[in-house]
Amino acid sequence: MVRKLLLLLTLAIAAAGQQKPRPAPDFAFHMSDGSKTMLSAFRGKVVLVAFLNTGCEHCQHFAQELGPIRQDYAAKGVEVLAAVFDTGARQGLAKFRDQFVRGFPIGYSDEATVMNWLGQAAADGYFVPIVAFVDRKGNIVSQHSGDDVLFQDPETNIRHKLDLMVKQR
After folding, report:
1. Whole-prediction pTM value?
2. % of the chain residues with pLDDT over 70
């Protein structure tokens, strides 16, 4: 029974990861020091983009998982970037960063910009955290909302996805 459940989970993750790639629009991560970090600056790398909310406990925990992933994959050409985008994102960024973020850049944005970048309407609803994987060519190869099966074991599933992506040239 456990094997069958693991197989179903693996198949579901694989199916979710087979979204049709599309060009990633450029995205500005507004940093707390007033500068901007542009997604396009990381072209040629595999990029994990995380969208988080400052008051979300799942996002806070997830942010803590991203630092070790970035550390383990940086030498393989992977970058981790994040943006908080809730109503108080700009004001809450520094506190969120200081409490939960280690080893990767995090900025802020707004809901409309994030939803537009993801290609979905905020009115349709969404769950955070949200993760998008961008390949070396600058294509979004998959994106996953917080209710996606990817988040049932995010560290393992993200590492698996990154392993597949770094092998592709």
Report:
1. 0.88
2. 89
pLDDT band at 108 (very low <50, low <70, confident <90, very high): very high
Interval 10-57: pLDDT, tens: 445 444 445 799 999 999 999 999 999 999 999 999 999 999 999 999
Q: How far apart are CA 91 and CA 93, in angstroms?
A: 6
pLDDT at 120 over 90: yes
Query: Residue 130, SS3?
Result: strand
Strands (E) in 43-112, as ranges, are 46-52, 78-84, 106-108
What is the number of residues in the chain? Answer: 169
Cα–Cα distances in angstroms (integers) from residue 142 to residues 22, 23, 49, 55, in the given order: 9, 11, 11, 25
**Both tokens assigned to 145:** 């909302």
- Write the CA distances from 119 to 13, 91, 124, integer angstroms: 20, 26, 11
Burial class (CB in 10 A: 0-12, 13-18, 19+), 32: middle
CA–CA distance, 13 with 9 (Å, rounded to integer): 6
CATH architecture for segment(s) 2-167: 3-Layer(aba) Sandwich (3.40)
